[in-house]
Design brief:
With 246 residues, the chain is an alpha/beta fold. The chain is 41% helix and 22% strand. It has a single domain (2-245), classed as Rossmann fold. The chain has a seven-stranded mixed beta sheet, with helices on both faces. Helix 1 runs parallel beside helix 6 (185-200).
């Protein structure tokens, strides 16, 4: 049966990744992953991902200036900034607050900030998406979150925080990989890779149906589309992209 095949494939992948499982058991993998492996991996992935989604991202962020506040200033909060892969898509003069749960992206982040001097960088907060308590309620015009909701601990809580920090009429932009259609080979592949992928890539979940969380969140307007990003040999091709208005 399908379940048996999935379990068999999971076992094969676990065998291949045995050294990582062992390091994890000894408590060595997680700190190494957060500090060295994942920042390195994400930097490489961001470059490829940006190349494959460049047109879609340009299109996505095109209407950002329309959400500037009454003063004409655009206050933007990015959740899970990572290496700063989105900076190039933000409009000039935009005031950016960066947040990430992992403080170890500093090198690439600094490089991307230098490359994108058309923005004002306000501050950097080391915090989880589910706890933006350092950001006052209703204080930002836009929130951006790309390739982050796949690995937060609680998607609904993260979305509640997004709604809290946005001013009324503010906008939330998202782009993330999601579960494939349940009857597809892609989904079979996602289920097979799930445990090992999650361990290796710092908690990243392959089978989340994030569009459902977005539909259930209290946004007044939701523009969402399913797209496929051609990332060869990976289980993360199915994506959702769009924006939601508070």
């Amino acid at each position: 049966t399908m379940e048996t095949s999935i379990l068999l494939l999971r076992a094969c992948l676990a065998l291949l990744a045995m050294p990582i499982y062992l390091l994890s058991f000894l408590g060595i993998w997680k700190p190494f992953c957060k500090k060295i492996f994942f920042p390195y991996f994400l930097e490489k992935l961001s470059v490829i991902h940006n190349r494959k989604t460049h047109r879609q991202k340009q299109e996505l962020f095109r209407n950002l200036p329309e959400f500037a506040g009454a003063s004409g200033e655009l206050k933007l909060l990015e959740i899970g900034t990572g290496c700063g892969a989105n900076f190039q898509f933000y409009p000039p003069g935009c005031k950016v607050t960066c947040t990430d749960i992992n403080p170890h992206f500093q090198q690439t982040l600094t490089r991307n900030m230098k490359k994108n001097q058309h923005l004002h960088y306000e501050r950097f907060l080391v915090t989880a998406a589910e706890d933006l308590s350092q950001v006052p309620s209703g204080s930002v015009d836009a929130v951006v979150c790309t390739l982050v909701l796949c690995s937060v601990l609680d998607v609904d809580r993260a979305l509640r925080e997004v709604l809290r920090v946005l001013r009324p009429g503010g906008v939330f932009y998202f782009l993330d990989h999601v579960a494939a259609d349940h009857s597809s080979w892609k989904y079979f592949w996602q289920q097979s890779c799930f445990p090992t992928w999650k361990l290796v890539f710092d908690g990243c979940c392959l089978t989340r149906e994030i569009w459902k969380n977005l539909e259930q969140a209290n946004f007044s307007e939701l523009k969402l589309q399913h797209i496929s990003v051609p990332l060869a040999w990976t289980p993360i091709k199915p994506h959702i992209i769009g924006y939601a208005v508070k």
